[in-house]
Amino acid sequence: MTSDEAMQMFLETGALLRGHFELRSGLHSDQYFQCALVLRYPRIAAQLCRALIERVREGLGGRLDVAGVMAPAMGGIIVGYEMARELGVVSLFAEKQEGKLALRRGFRIEPGASYLVAEDVITRGGRVQETVDIVEIRGGKVAAVAVLVDRSGGKTRFTHPVFNLLEMDPATYEPENCPLCRQGLPLDHPGS
Ligand SMILES: [Zn+2]
Question: Is 138 buried (19+), middle (13-18) or exposed (0-12) by CB count in 10 A?
Answer without folding.
Answer: middle
